[in-house]
Amino acid sequence: MKTGGIDVPQDASFTSVRKLHHGGVIFEVDSVDTKVWLSCQSASQAFSENFGEETMIKDRTFQVIAEYVLTTFNPDSATSLTETEKSSKLRPGALTKAKWIKPLARHNPGQCSAFCTLSCKDRESANQAI
């Protein structure tokens, strides 16, 4: 069977569904193949059309706190994330985003380092970053 122009995995199924306190819903799938299928834009669009216009499909990320990061690091820059992956010996694309724990505007003048959170694409990358 095809959905969104891509083959649906033969045994695709959801293993659990959990409603969050803010109204969101988490669907857990049975395999990496099902996740890859849902990550395809056309398949995710076809899937979310059944749940309303405000539906978003997000990949789960794993958060790691990085301590004493130089304040010259730019968490909004894809180049900074790529350089961090290389220097940390993470595979390319392992980091999806970074964010200062305390906004830069609230840092003390002359502050050289701060803590930030790194969002990792998978559990293995998060463990390797630690």
Query: Which residues sit in consecutive blocks of at least 5 with pLDDT less than 50?
Result: none
Query: Could you estimate the helical fraction of the residues in percent?
Result: 25-40%
Strand content: 25-35%
Biggest sheet, spatial arrangement of strands: 5-7-6
SSE string, helix = H, strand = E? EEEEHHEHEEH
Overall description:
It contains four helices and seven strands. The chain has 130 residues and is of the alpha+beta class. Strands 5-7-6 form a three-stranded antiparallel β-sheet. The longest helix is centred in the middle third of the chain and has 10 residues, at 78-87.
Q: TL;DR?
A:
The protein has 4 helices and 7 strands; from the N terminus they run ββββααβαββα. By secondary structure, it is an alpha+beta fold.
Topology (elements, then pairings):
Layout: E1 2-3, E2 6-7, E3 14-19, E4 25-29, H1 32-39, H2 41-48, E5 62-70, H3 78-87, E6 95-100, E7 113-120, H4 123-129
Antiparallel strand pairs: 1-2, 3-4, 5-7, 6-7
Attribute tags:
single chain, 29% strand, two-stranded antiparallel sheet, 130 residues, 7 strands, alpha+beta, elongated, 3-stranded antiparallel β-sheet
